[in-house]
Structures are given as structure tokens and as C-alpha cells.
């Protein structure tokens, strides 16, 4: 998740990863190694979209003649998914600017008026964007509906808890969209909701969905193929933020640590040295930072530990700018997956062959 400043992230990395890399201690070990956690990963690996998601939505009469369904969304990956299913038939507007921490983003009061006229508001749920969700709940009109895509997709026994989202904190990891079958479930939910809210265009929403899920399935197959090229012992992630738990469960990877803003105190030289030793002991090939957070501290830790420093990942900030061919959820996932595969000794050619071009007109408004 992109943060508003880079210094706290760099500082907290040493504090968090010193504890987390190479085996966890205390309550954190329960999140990564318990039977319950392994069972949840297994259920995520075998995920299928539940009926409550594929049949979601409330039946409406649809917008007046000459008008479009008014749809609002939260983070950019969800906005992109919704826009592809809508295909220009709905007015899709994102609420959370790209490059913003969606966990803490405080929506402007002026958004309240926009939400009052919304027919549908798609949020992730699972406590990803609580301030924005709360504003929607307070302002969406009686004929509008709020749809929590992540909450509909997962049963509680599929929730993953990890370093950034420990069970003790009561918030499951909400980043389902890094798992392509779960992203497909999001798209199926969106199509069901839009078809019921705008019956006149139901057939086209379903056609757009069919084309879009073919793309998502192709991305999934490409990642399966690319994973086979990564040495098994290298399929481990030390990342800047715990956004890849559901991704890892899908492809049999392991998240061994996370760069997370957990403490703003300066790490001691002893803590930094311990982190470097742990990366060496675990033989972690690469440390993944964020392309928006250049950090001399992280770079030096990677250098001294012998790990490659790859500061290019992003979890909800789409490549390029609105209107660019690669400004899409599919292009975002292709970029992240290929970056991780290549840095960990695999061949991303299968992902390079994948064409992320949108399947329908993406006319969404992405706030900057």
C-alpha cells in the first residue's frame, strides 16, 4: 500500500523484519505456522466463488432513459475491475486517489453529496477502507446499495492473518485481488449486481464479464507457468507490505516477512545487524520494496545481506496514468508477478506474453 511518506516505512522495516524474517516469535508465529493458518491457506488455494457472490445484488428498475447507472468504487484495482465489467454503460468513479493509504484515507466531505446519488458503491470490505465505507453508509440514498466484494468472496475460515494483519489485531488481510481467482469472483459479483441494478443492459454486462474473466484466467495460467520456472526454495517473499498473502496461497509461495509501518523509532545498529544476519541465514534472494518509496536504509540492508533490492512493487497503484493502455488491474498484476518471478530466479516469459489490454471500454474516473 503506498504511504504518504517514505521515512517511517524505511525505519519500521528494520524493526518489523528483524522480528519476522527467518521464523517468527510470540503471537506472530501462530499466524504463520499454526494448523489453522495452514488450513486457511489450503482453503484459499482451492478457492471457488460462492453463490452469495455470483448472485449478489438487489433488483432495481434501472436509471431513467438517457441516464447511466451511477457507480462508485474505492481502490483503483476495484475501479478497474468494475469499469471493465461496466464497459462504459455505467458512470464509474473511484473515490480513493491512487497512491493513498486506503486503510486511513479520510474522504473529503464533498464526497457525501456524490454518494447520495450513487446507485451502487463497490467496496472491498474486510476493513480495508473503513473511513470511506463509513462515509458511504452514512450518505448513500435509500435506493442505493453498498456491496462488499471481499466480504462476499470469503468465508471467515478462509481469512488469512499474517505479519501486517495479525489475528490479534482482528483485521484479516484484505488484499484478495492479488489472487486471480478471487479477482474473478469480484468481477462475477460486479456483473451480477450491475445486471440487477440496470436490467436493460444485463446481457451486455454478462458479455463484458465473459470477456474479462477469460483475461483473468489467462493471467492465472501464465502465473502458474511462470512459477514452475522459479526454484522451489526461492518462492519466498519479503515485501514492503503484506499484500500478497492470497497470491502466495494460490501459487504455493511463502511470505516470510513484510515491510510494514509498525514503529516510528529509529532501529538500533544491533537490530539492523540482526536483520542482515537473518536474511543471510534464510538465503532470501531478494528484498521487495515499493517503487514509490526509495530507501537508502532498505537498499543498504539488502546490499550487506547479499540480497537483491527490488524497489518496484505496487499493490493498488495502477501503472501509468488514466487513459494509458497499461493503467489497469490486469497490467498491474502482470507487472508485479513478472517482477517477483524474475528477481527470484525464474523466467517471466509466460507473463510477458500475456496481453492485459482491457476487454471493454474503461471510462472510469480515477482520482489522482
For the biggest β-sheet, the strand order reads 2-1-3-4
CATH arch. level architecture of the largest domain: 3-Layer(aba) Sandwich
CATH topology of the largest domain: Rossmann fold
What's the SSE pattern?
A: HHHHEHEHEHEHHHEHEHEHEHH
Mean pLDDT: 85
CATH superfamily of the largest domain: Nitrogenase molybdenum iron protein domain
Can you identify the CATH class of the largest domain? Alpha Beta
- Uncertain runs: 1-33, 261-267
Q: How many domain modules?
A: 2
How many beta strands in the DSSP annotation? 8
Secondary structure tally, helices? 15
Classification by helices and strands: alpha/beta
Secondary structure: helix percent: 40-55%
How would you sum up this structure, described in words?
It is a single chain. The protein has about 375 residues and is an alpha/beta fold. It has 2 domains: about 5-45 and about 225-355, Nitrogenase molybdenum iron protein domain (Rossmann fold); about 50-155 and about 170-200, Rossmann fold (3-Layer(aba) Sandwich), CATH 3.40.50.1980. The chain contains 15 helices and 8 strands. Strands 2-1-3-4 form a 4-stranded parallel β-sheet, sandwiched between helices. The two termini are about 15 Å apart.
Characteristics:
368 residues; alpha/beta; Rossmann fold; 2 domains; two-stranded parallel sheet; 15 helices; globular; disordered N terminus
Amino acid at each position: 500500500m503506498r504511504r504518504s511518506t517514505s521515512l517511517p516505512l524505511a525505519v519500521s522495516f528494520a524493526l518489523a523484519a528483524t522480528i519476522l524474517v527467518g521464523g517468527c516469535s510470540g503471537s506472530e508465529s501462530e499466524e504463520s505456522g499454526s494448523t489453522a493458518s495452514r488450513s486457511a491457506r489450503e482453503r484459499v488455494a482451492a478457492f471457488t466463488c460462492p453463490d452469495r457472490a455470483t448472485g449478489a445484488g438487489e433488483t432495481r428498475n434501472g436509471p431513467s432513459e438517457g441516464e447511466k447507472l451511477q457507480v462508485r468504487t474505492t481502490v483503483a484495482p476495484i475501479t478497474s475491475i468494475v469499469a471493465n465489467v461496466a464497459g462504459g454503460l455505467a458512470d464509474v468513479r473511484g473515490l480513493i486517489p491512487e497512491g493513498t493509504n486506503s486503510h486511513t484515507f479520510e474522504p473529503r466531505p464533498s464526497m457525501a453529496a456524490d454518494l447520495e446519488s450513487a446507485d451502487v458503491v463497490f467496496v472491498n470490505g474486510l476493513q480495508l477502507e473503513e473511513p470511506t465505507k463509513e462515509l458511504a453508509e452514512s450518505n448513500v440514498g435509500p435506493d442505493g446499495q453498498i456491496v462488499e466484494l471481499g466480504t462476499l468472496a470469503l468465508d471467515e475460515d478462509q481469512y488469512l492473518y499474517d505479519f501486517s494483519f495479525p489475528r490479534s489485531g482482528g483485521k484479516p488481510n484484505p488484499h484478495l485481488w492479488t489472487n486471480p481467482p478471487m479477482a474473478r469472483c469480484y468481477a462475477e459479483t460486479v456483473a451480477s449486481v450491475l445486471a440487477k441494478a440496470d436490467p436493460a443492459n444485463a446481457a451486455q454486462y454478462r458479455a463484458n464479464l465473459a470477456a474479462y474473466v477469460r483475461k483473468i484466467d489467462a493471467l492465472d495460467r501464465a502465473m502458474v507457468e511462470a512459477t514452475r520456472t522459479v526454484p522451489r526454495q526461492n518462492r519466498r517473499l519479503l515485501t514492503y507490505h503484506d499484500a500478497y498473502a492470497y497470491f502466495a496461497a494460490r501459487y504455493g509461495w511463502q511470505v516470510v516477512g513484510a515491510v510494514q509501518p509498525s514503529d516510528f523509532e529509529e532501529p538500533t545498529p544491533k537490530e539492523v545487524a540482526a536483520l542482515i544476519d537473518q536474511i543471510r541465514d534464510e538465503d532470501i534472494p531478494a528484498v521487495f520494496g515499493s517503487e514509490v518509496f526509495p530507501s537508502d536504509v532498505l537498499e543498504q540492508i539488502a546490499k550487506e545481506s547479499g540480497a537483491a533490492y527490488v524497489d518496484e512493487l505496487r499493490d493498488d497503484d495502477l501503472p501509468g496514468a488514466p487513459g494509458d493502455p497499461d493503467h489497469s488491474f490486469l497490467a498491474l498484476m502482470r507487472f508485479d508477478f513478472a517482477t517477483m518471478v524474475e528477481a527470484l530466479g525464474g523466467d517471466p516469459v509466460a507473463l510477458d506474453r500475456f496481453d492485459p489490454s482491457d476487454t471493454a471500454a474503461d471510462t472510469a474516473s480515477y482520482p489522482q
